[in-house]
Amino acid sequence: MTQRTDPITAQVIRNALSSISDEMALVIMRTAHSAIVRDSMDYSTGLCDRHGRIIAHGMTMALHLGSFPDAMQKLVAATGDDTHPGDIFVFNDPYVAGGMHLPDVYIVKPVFVGDALEGYACTLVHQTDMGGLAPGSTAVYAKEIYQEGVRIPILKLYDRGVANDTFFKMMALNTRLPDMVMGDMQSQIAAVTSAGQAFEALVGKYGSQVFRDFIDEMHAKSEEM
Question: What is the pTM of this model?
């Protein structure tokens, strides 16, 4: 593939994307309520392009990143044209949403520049308790997924900037630790919101075409390697 992005611009964009992902990780670390997130750093952050392909990841746990491609493809396929500025999605189900185990909750924000979708700011946090048989939602003696905790399909946590209060109320009533779980989810929301602003500014600075060319070149080079 012929490189259309000059090397200096490409490196600046690449480093900016990494910095945005790291900033998401730091926002969560500094605002999380639970020790498993704040101290153990059992969470991951990353950025995806408009097709849901990973383009950068943050400084925390790399293990979760293996689930990002499947989860994001499920999200892109499920939401289609029903994605708008101000939306934020939440999900954890391993079967219908490409998640891992139920305590690992995705909160993802699509990033728009003008009316064009340019990418996604993604977080995955191990929540302290998602209900189910055992505290912590890690019942090794569970015989079916329904005993493990709350299954969340791909839902809008925010719809065009308006919070889904029904989800927040439902989730708070189905966890043993509502303050911690709700607090950690708010940390994820803060992280994707700040990342979305930085992502939008980055694409706005260089223009959508330059950004998209760089992303395509980066993926092509990765395939060659």
Answer: 0.95
